[in-house]
Design a protein that fits this description.
The protein is built from nine helices and five strands, in the order ββααβααβαβαααα. A five-stranded mixed beta sheet has the order 3-2-1-4-5. Helix content is 52%, strand content 14%. With 221 residues, the chain is an alpha/beta fold. The protein folds into two domains: 162 residues, Ribonuclease H-like superfamily/Ribonuclease H (Nucleotidyltransferase, domain 5); 52 residues, no CATH class. α2 packs across α7 and α4 packs across α5. α5 links the parallel β4 and β5.
């Protein structure tokens, strides 16, 4: 049976904490097992359900690989002069996972609007460029291999967020700016804990620019 690697991420958009990418390696029998235990896109599951599924998925799949990409690495990529952006960073990390797991087929939840361009870019990064590649939107919903990867990635991301909360001794919520707790924490502590924020994100740059302008105004007075 062909070995299939499904890849997905968690934490692409928040201003706090890492993005986590995961690849799971399984075959047809394993995919059937993942369906039996109720693996589905992590966004369709509660935190408790995801946590319960994590060890079951690990037991079923033949291998898996998790990558935790911190704010500093994301910022370095987004702000680099080499044309890198978050999509291309994901492609490079996907290639790292694929080269490690060595599947015969890959299924990727595509982060880019231009699926064909992203697929071609990714394939050029691989050691095995002849691997069968399925790159599409909503792969985490349509393919159980990607669903399983999304669960492992999400649980790991949530664990990292809790670790950061313990370190700063503050509940900042989800880390997304759609969360009022995160907004309040961001407003108060964006300069106090710079390492946990994605400083390349527009809201952080705007906040920092506003602070500088205020200080400049005070100096001129």
């Amino acid at each position: 049976m062909a070995l299939v690697c499904g890849i997905d991420e968690a934490g692409r958009g928040p201003i706090i904490g890492p993005m986590v990418m995961c690849g799971v390696l399984t075959d047809e029998e394993g995919a059937a097992g993942l369906k039996r235990i109720g693996a589905k896109d992590s966004k369709l599951l509660s935190p408790k359900q995801r946590e319960q599924l994590f060890p079951k998925i690990v037991k079923i799949v033949k291998a898996y690989k998790l990558l935790i990409i911190g704010p500093a690495e994301i910022d370095a990529s987004v702000q680099s002069d080499g044309g890198m952006n978050l999509n291309w960073l994901e492609a490079h990390k996907s290639a790292e996972i694929i080269d490690a797991l060595r599947p015969e087929k890959i299924i990727i939840d595509c982060p880019s609007n231009n699926v064909e361009e992203y697929k071609n870019y990714l394939l050029q990064l691989l050691k095995n460029r002849k691997v069968e590649a399925v790159v599409e939107h909503k792969a985490d919903v349509n393919h159980v291999e990607c669903s399983a990867a999304s669960i492992l990635a999400k649980v790991t991301r949530d664990s990292e967020v809790e670790r950061i909360k313990r370190a700063v001794v503050e509940d900042f919520g989800s880390g997304y700016l759609s969360d009022p707790k995160t907004v309040e924490f961001f407003d108060k502590y964006f300069e106090v804990y710079p390492d946990i924020f994605r400083k390349s994100w527009a809201p952080y740059r705007k906040k920092l620019d506003g602070k500088r302008q205020k200080r400049l105004g005070e100096f001129e007075e």
